[in-house]
């Protein structure tokens, strides 16, 4: 079995945008050089979908991981916001005093969202190529 990941971002109107892996990686390495003006000054709902491939074609969705990315007023990905969330999630894996844990939980939840059943279905269908998505 071969597997692959597909990354999608959702517009405010629930438009599904495919974020190609190469662009996403470039954006993570050098955010200022790879802005997405469409998402300027927004917290954007995103989802990584793992799919099973047969002959390079997606045949089955294996999982969906929703998260949020922040963009500044120029559409540049705010790496620090994601780092804060990742650090807080890692901190929660270790026992800490209750007050510190509560603060970590609050920060960790900033980077999460839960799609409705209909929206999750739309994202999964896009990942399988059954629904057209726009490329970023």
Mean pLDDT across every amino acid position: 83
Hey, roughly how much beta strand do the residues contain? 25-35%
Count of strand segments: 5
Radius of gyration: 16 Å
Count, helices: 4
List keywords for this structure.
136 residues, alpha+beta, globular, 5 strands, five-stranded mixed beta sheet, 35% helix
Summarize the structure in words:
The structure is a single chain. The chain contains 4 helices and 5 strands. The protein has one domain. The model has no long low-confidence stretch (mean pLDDT 83). It is globular and about 40 Å long. The protein has helices at 21-29, 79-92, 98-110, 117-127; strands at 2-10, 16-18, 43-54, 57-70, 134-135. The chain has 136 residues and is an alpha+beta fold. A hairpin with a 2-residue loop joins strand 3 and strand 4. A 5-stranded mixed β-sheet has the order 4-3-1-2-5, with helices on both faces.
How is this structure best summarized?
This protein is of the alpha+beta class and 136 residues long.
